[in-house]
Amino acid sequence: MAENETLECITEHERILQEIESTDTACVGPTLRSVYDDQPNAHKRFMEKLDARIRNHDREIEKMCNFHHQGFVDAITELLKVRADAEKLMGQVTDTNRRLQEAGREVTAQTEEVIRCRIQQRNMATTVEKLQLCIPVLEMYSKLKEQLESKRYPSHTSCPLGLFCCVPCRVSHYRFCQIMAENLPRLREEIKEISMSDLKDFLESIRKHSDRVGETAMRQAQQHRTFNSAVAKQASMGHYTKPVYSLNGQAHTHPHNGLMIDDTGEEEEGDEEVLTAQDLVDFSPVYRCLHIYTVLGDRETFENYYRKQRKKQARLVLQPQANMHETVEGYRRYFNQIVGFFVVEDHILHATRGLVTRAFTDELWNMALSKIIAVLRTLSSYCDDPDLVLELKNLIVIFADTLQGYGFPVNRLFDLLFEIRDQYNETLLKKWALVFREIFELDNYSPIPVETEEEYKQVISRFPFHDAEIEKQDFPKKLPMSQSVPQIYTQVKEFIYASLKFSESLHRSSTEIDDMLRKSTNLLLTRTLSGCLQNLIKKPHIGLTELVQIIINTTHLEQACRYLEEFITNITNVSPETVHTTRLYGLSTFKDARHAAEGEIYTKLNQKIDEFIQLADYEWGMAESDGRASGYLMDLINFLRSTFQVFTHLPGKVAQTACMSACKHLSTSLMQMLLDTELKQISMGAIQQFNLDVIQCELFASSEPVPGFQGDTLQLAFIDLRQLLDLFMVWDWSTYLADYGQPTSKYLRVNPATALALLEKMKDTSKKNNIFSQFRKNDRDKQKLIETVVKQLRSLVNGMSS
């Protein structure tokens, strides 16, 4: 067992020694530590082993030294032999070196001079390089100072500000660069302030020049539209490219706007110089300020400021001036300023890159359009002059066409024009109402006399009148209508022309224009002319003759309505058979006026009859009649005869109705005169006198004052009076009472109440010496008979009331 352990220990020590011999010295520690980690006293055996190994190595070294010793001795001996030769060689080398040094001293000096020159040359090249970097910076800084002192500010891409923003790092460490860098922020702020001041001056200037810019743009737009109208007539002759009017130089076919930069740089020669935006406005402050802020990296601030200020100016431009609505010049200045504002904005939009955007200009335009429409809608409502409204419409059309040429939507403006068109029609209606009133006031309400054929042609050239019978008559002759008829017809055509003027340039179809004209003409006929006719008819100074002539006039105007429709058709070239074509309402208008005139004739005729009736002066207590009709009644009948002779030109039905109405009113008035409650007593003589007057009325009715009555139709108007008077004149009470209520009664139209009222006025005359005085002398029985008749009449009246 002990022997095995000893073998293992020896083997382990051998391994450790090999490790120590083969490994690095730094790794010996762990190896030696393993010696002490083994069995106790193992290190002693290891030390013994180590000593043995050392002794073994010493013996090997000794053997090697003994083996090489003779060679070493021989080498030393050889070395000692060459010592003398080495010393000799050393002397020769030293001498050679001395002589070489003396010979190369001049070359060395020249070489050092070359090296020094080379160093100077390198330093000079380095200095030039550095100066080339510094000189542009210094020059730009000097240039910037000079520009600031002379108040000329950099506006090009090579401006000092641009270079300073790109200063190379290789010169940034120089002191002068540091000084300049310290001054740059101040200079930048100074340049920004000064350029902003120039921009403010520009904004103030453009505010003043917007009027002229807009005036030029609108004038060119109007010329362009006129030119296009002329070219459209020659469109079939060949292809034609339309130039767009321009406020920025050349006229190009680009559709987006009229402010365009010249593509060629060459101006075309023309008969008339075309003003450009640059001719009217200097845009350099905007370009310069935009460039400065862009170079300084503060473009967004500039854009926001510019847009904010332009929005404020837009609100100022859109604010209407006081009393602007009173003259067309006020509207023109208003439109010029707005057009000028947006022409400038359109130019800025296309001449700069992003200072304003299409979205920004569209936002401004939408805001402006709403304000413009509100202002025009309000101010136009104050205008009562159709000429001013028409001029306003023309201005709006030019205004819309101008801005449409720059790409702004203007449909809402044309919608506004339709609203203004209605107002324009209202002002026209008011104006023509005054014209119609003046025509009616100046009319003599008598047929138009024509002495010669020239006069006849002159009249029919103004009014479409055709009558074969009148044409066959010799001159001089009279036309049935009065002078107001051709005047009214002419004025209606003038109204149509005036209404058509507003419809022009509204970009509407012929059908729509035709519909507008017909509707406005209908308003003229049904409201304005009809109202004037109604007022004319109601005027107190219009007599029966005038009313008759008015009826004749309205008849001819009604017949002329179809010519008015043809007139509108010729203007618009729209066939009247087209679907949805509006018809003129002149027929109903003139029929209504004629009916009103007829009613007024009946009323005035009755009023005239009442005036004659008021002249009646009956002596109700007279014993006998005068034997002839009363004077007032004969005058009334003569008046009626002459009046009905005037009615010969009226339609037969109108004259017959007027005659029947007059006779009925006369009969009713005479009946009311007999039954007047203020009339207490009537003598038989008065009854006889009244009977004579009624006979004259019946004779008048039977004389057929107006042709067309059948049989005794007109006399039936007096049948109530006739039967009542016959009853009293014949004193046929027995027949009346016996046949009362029978269809075949002789006194069928006599009412018991009427007979009783009149009989009450004729009885009880004993104290007044009335008509019954003779009966008291002759026969008292007859008085009793009267009392009996009165009682029976009262019973009939009471029976009717129950």
UniProtKB/TrEMBL annotation:
What InterPro entries does the annotation carry? EXOC6/Sec15, EXOC6/Sec15_C, EXOC6/Sec15_C_dom1, EXOC6_Sec15_N, EXOC6PINT-1/Sec15/Tip20_C_dom2
Could you tell me which residue ranges the Exocyst complex component EXOC6/Sec15 N-terminal domain spans? 49-218
For whether the record's keyword set contains Transport, the answer is yes
List the GO cellular component terms. Answer: exocyst; plasma membrane
Q: Where is the Exocyst complex subunit EXOC6/Sec15 C-terminal domain?
A: 413-761
The protein's UniProt keywords, in alphabetical order, are: Exocytosis, Transport
Query: Which segments of the protein form a coiled coil according to its record?
Result: none
**Lineage top rank: taxon:** Eukaryota
Q: Share an example GO biological-process annotation for this protein.
A: intracellular protein transport
Question: Family assignment?
Answer: Belongs to the SEC15 family.
Q: What does this protein do?
A: Component of the exocyst complex involved in the docking of exocytic vesicles with fusion sites on the plasma membrane.
UniProt protein name: Exocyst complex component
Provide the taxonomic classification. Answer: Eukaryota, Metazoa, Chordata, Craniata, Vertebrata
Q: What gene name does this entry carry?
A: EXOC6
